[in-house]
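Task card 7
Instruction: Convert sequence to C-alpha cells.
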Amino acid sequence: MSKENLKNKTSLELLSPAGSPESLKMAVLYGADAVYLGMKTFGMRATPENFDFDELCEAVKFAHAHNVKVYLTCNIIPTNAEADEFPEFIKRAEKTGIDAVIVSDLGILEAVKQNAPSLDLHISTQAGVNNYAAANAFYKLGANRVILARETPLKEIARIRENTPPELELEAFVHGAMCVSFSGRCLLSQYLIARDANRGECAQPCRWGYYLSEEKREGQYFKIEEEERGSFILNAKDLCMIRHLEKIKDAGVSSFKIEGRAKSAYYTAIITNAYRAALDALKKGEPVPEWAVREVGTVSHREYCTGFYLDKTDAVQLYEDGGYVREYDFIGVVNACNDGVADITQRNYFEKDDEIEVIAPKSPPQKLIIKSMRNEKNEPVKIANKATERLFADVDIELKPYSVLRKKLL
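Output:
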C-alpha cells in the first residue's frame, strides 16, 4: 500500500484527558477514542488527582470495555533516583493492560523498550518534535507515534508527514491551554517558587500580572501598559481548532488531542462531546455542527485562538488580563433516570424552576426546568446548596446516566 493510501486509510482518533477516575469515565462516555492519564509519579501533571495502580487497572477495564485505548504519561525529566525506580514501575504498569506510554526522555524510552516491550511508544510534545529529521530519529529508536510541538504550523506538519514512514503516527493538540515557552520547557515556576514545570508542578506564573520596577526605587511599581492590575505579558490564549479539523487531517495528523488533565470532569465531558461531533461530521464530509462550536464556549476558558497552525497566525498572547471567560455553572450529574424521576448529584447552587441545560453523551444540549425535587429523606427541596447532595427531580424528558447539568450565569 502506498504512503498516501495508508495515510488516508488511517482512522482519526479523538484523544481526551483523564486527570481523575471521574474525568476518565466522562471522556470515554462522551466519545473519546483514547484517553491519556498519569499516575502519582513520572507524569507532567502533579496537581490532578491522577491514578494509583488499583485505579489504573479499573480505568483500563472500563475504557477497554468501551473500545477506548489508554495511554500512560511518563514524560517528566527524571532524576537519577527516578531512573532507578522506573523499570519496576513500568513493568507493573504494563500488566494493567495500558496500550501505550508517552515519554520525552531517552533513558525512559529505552527503559520502556527493555522492560515493557508490549507497549507502544509515543513521544511527548515535551520532546519538541517540529521537523521530519527528529520524527525519523525517534521512529528509528522505536517510537510508534510523535506528538508534535504545538509551535509547528500545518504546512510544516504536512512536510513532516511526507518525509516520515507512514507507520509513524502523528498526533497534535487541537484544543486547550498553551504555554508561553516552547513545548512547555519552562523554568519560570522553578525560579520563582521552586515548583518545577518539567516535573509536573507548574504554578503557571505566566498567568500572573506583572509590573516594572527600578532597582533604586524600592517599593515603586510602574505599569507596563495602561491596565490598573499590571500587564499580563506572558499570558497565552487557549487553542481552539474545532472549525479547522479538516486542515489538520489533510496535513497528515491522525490523532486529535485535547489538553486538560488538570481540568474538571465537566470540562472533559463538554469538550470531548463537541469534538466528537465535529470529528464525526468531518468523517461524513459534513460541516461542523454549530451547536458543537457553541459548546466550546460554555466551559471556563481563556480567549481562543488558532495558535501557530495557520499561515496567518493568531496573536497567541493575551495581554489584557490573566483570567478566564466563564458563562455557565456546572450544577450536577445525572446518576440515573427512571419513570420521570432523575437521580442527581448536585455540584453547584441552583434552585427549583431555574432554566438549566442538560448535555448527554454524544448529544447536543437540551433545555430543562425542574418543577419539583426532593432530598434523600423525601423532603421537598427548593434550593440545592449542599455540596454533592443527592436529589431526586421530576423531569419531563428522559435523562441518560452521566448527563451533566449546567446553568447560565446572570
